[in-house]
Amino acid sequence: MSKLQSEVLREAISQINTEATTKKRKFTETVELQIGLKNYDPQKDKRFSGSVKLPHIPRPKMKVCMLGDAQHVEEAQKIGLEYMDVEGLKKLNKNKKLVKKLAKKFHAFLASEAVIKQIPRLLGPGLNKA
Fold first, then answer.
1. Structural domains of the chain ordered from first start
2. In what order do the strands lie in the sheet with 64-68?
3. Closest CA to 127 of 115, 105, 22, 114
4. Is pTM beyond 0.85 here?
């Protein structure tokens, strides 16, 4: 394995960015970066974890819906997150049009542990196909 100069890395990243703007794709592309550490034995040393604060919000307009029990619905309501309880899910009654409309309205769903097992039974395969 060889060392990589920071200038070469910056040049490669800028080239990726320019090609991403000129060649429009119909899917989200990912870039993977692997870093090897010297004098680090993963068997002996514990794996480390950390977080990186991004300079901007990746999806500022991301819409999330909480599918939850009473406790999680209350928490979602406090922080201004849209939510649906089990009764609301039962009202959809596997109606494909309503489930598809719900799926298209949000980018992501969070579900309580108690509710997550009931979702396929309550909604059917509608969330997968939207």
1. 64-129 (3.40.50.790)
2. 82-85, 64-68, 108-111
3. 105
4. no
Query: Cβ distance 127 to 99 under 8 Å?
Result: yes
End-to-end CA distance of the chain: 44
Q: What token pair was written down for 126?
A: 């509608």
Identify which has the larger pLDDT, 1 or 81: 81
Rounded to whole angstroms, the Cα distance separating 117 from 67 reads 11
pLDDT (average), residues 30-47: 72
The pLDDT tens digits of the residues spanning 51-103 come to 777 777 777 788 999 999 989 999 999 988 899 998 988 888 878 888 888 88
Tell me the H-state helices in 1-130.
Answer: 6-22, 70-78, 86-92, 96-105, 113-116, 119-123, 126-129
d(CA 130, CA 107): 11
CA distance 130 to 103: 6
Long-range contacts of 78-84 (CB under 8 A, 24+ apart): 82/106
